[in-house]
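note to self — DONT lose this again. spent like an hour looking for the file last time. sequence + predicted structure for the chain T wanted, 786 res
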Amino acid sequence: MFVDPKTANCLGAACVVACSMIALPIASFGSGLAMETRSAVLRLAGVSAAVLVSFGFVYRIFTGYIFSGYLVRQAPFLVFWTDLLVAAGCFFLADFASRQIKEGRTLPMFGGVILLTLFSGAWIALQITYWSAIPATHYSFLHLLNKAPFRGKTFVVDTYPAPISEETRSWAYAESSIFSGQLRLGPAGFGTDHDTKYLWFADASTNRNYLRPDFGIKITQPASLEMALGQWTTSESEASVSAKFESAGIIERSREPIEAFIQDELCADDKRNFAIVKFDWDYPPFLKRVDSPLMRAAATMTLGTKMGLSSLAAAFHRNWRVEIEDIGDASGSSTPSLDRLVAVATIDGSAIFEPESLKTTGVLSKLVEGRHLHIRLHDGRRDGIVRVTVNDMTKVFDLREAVDKSRDISFSDSEPFGKHTFIPNFSAGVFVTTSLNRSNGKTTARVSYNYAQQDGKPEEDTTIRIFNRDPSGKLNLVDSISYLGPSGIPVRIDDFRRQNADVLAEYSREASLGDQQTFEQWLLGYLQRHPEGLNRRGVLAESMSPSRRPEAGISPIVRDVALPDGLTGWCDISVTPGTRSKRGPEYFGLPFEANKSDRMGNGGRTLEIENYSPQAGQLPYGTIELRLRFPTTSPLQHEPIVQTGTEGAGDFLYVYYVDSRHIQLGFDHWFIGGPTTPPLLIDYSKDHVLEISMGSLFPSGDDILFGGVPDDAVSDIKSTLHVVLDGKTVLDSKVEFCDSTPEQVVVGQNSINGSTSNPLFLGTIVRQDRVWPASLIPHPGSAPSQ
């Protein structure tokens, strides 16, 4: 039977104290028992005094490090001294008993033996308890690292990296934030979280390879003996422990049925203590802002007009392109009907496809509008392979194999790319411009955009789509052209698939053998191997290359796209940039009326924009103004005021109740922290006014809402934390923020499991408003952003 944790700790402390009390008196007064002279005792006492003085000195200078690195973890910082005392106590007891035996003194002999036995028993029981609570199995995976595919590869670890580096024979360093699994798109491209404070290599500032390790290892181990003993005595089920471990960001992302834009791969794990993830650093392309007349015209627009054109307006109507295709087996034969493979396909609870259509094979495609998209494939093994595409995110599911990933696909308007990917909403017309030309009875749209990929990969699989709006404003896809390869071979993919069954069968055969390419990626390789395929139906003879390509990185790319005959009414054109291996997000140009192209000259047109006129306090962006009363029942507690972002990529403004007359306000940026105020005198019985400006309360810097505003003013508002309490500025700092959507801004709650504060603000929020700062409203003569 093992000893419970409290008893084990008490026994350990008692052993040290007992040995200390026994060692010094016996050595001092037991002449000849253990030492020949008392000088050794003086040396032992001198060492003890020196240890205590040195510890006090080090603790005073490095208090935080000693406290968090050693005392909290109960690590043996003074092991060189405590072991000396324990050894001396054991030696004195053994020597005392031995001398009593030689001198024939029975009673003292038994006393010494009993003391030694009790001490040894306590020590052994303590070690057994620790061995049971902290078995030497947390690093049992190390033998995997000296074999393929890990040997010689580079790693980041969320704990000490030395054992990993030793086994792999390559570099490794400690990192924590990368394991959040967060992916974000910014002005310079896609990026993941990186914390380089433990990147101590000599060439860290010049070697960018350190920011792209091959693998990451997440290791769960107790931070202290107290935590380990607590976990050991808690009767938590294996399923619960596994669920907690697999909820970590990077593991959760790698298990998503469809990973947006990058595909991290879970290579090995024990579902409890360790997980090895292979990182995908093949970032997709994106578009940079074009020199749009719209942004210049925004300098004279009202805020309501800008709201009507902003990314917010696009977010009001979230559209999903859903495509489900049965691929077949290696012989190219068809799989069972889709209803035997697809269990659920709904938008806001309503079926996306008619039941009869699911009884067929082939491809089902539909454009739907709604907030919550849900697709679930049948559980268990099925005789079929299915390709599911949501917008431009594609995954092939082999239902013949045992389930290794969830087959339950869910997206929502608040998380349109999944829980771990943040892509800002894009204002129409800021990244894509369109102009119409009419010649020989044909209407052509000239589409301009600035292609970019942060690693310099060329454009090889960009898709341009044409949508038509019905009277309710709902989009309907009327044409889609993919430009394949460096030369931009234009292919109407849907037409090609319908009219070239033999090519489609060959793709299905290769996909069934494990080829994970999208049809567009595969088709490019096919056309390069079979040039005669350029004469097949669906391949457009005209526009084999854009009318203008960037030279030496100079943009834009311009493509002329013929509008379908008979197209009338309001239309939209979108651009989805692509490389050979990845596709980026979709960007829209401004809407236009196709049947009024004859009234356009040089692409100019008059837009009819519906003003966005929110009621007071309902602006989606801007500073937050709160009238609130702090609680009197939360002494020494941290409570949330404002939360933005998502778990692993969020920001908090919180309050700490110092005492009955003072509070502190603080800011926390996930993984980094932030500034806090000194104690502020406060009257808990009165209402107070807080004005809060955080960069995450505003749209991306490319949004039309910032049109006409100087770039330095936009940069300043996006990087500044400014908090005013009752008319007095209490925080004003340059900090980092995680981008956030309006839906992710929450007042008075900590709903994303931040560690800085409690779940709820227990005071009273009397009123809250959103205010667009006057400094962001262009004035006549101000320099517009470019």
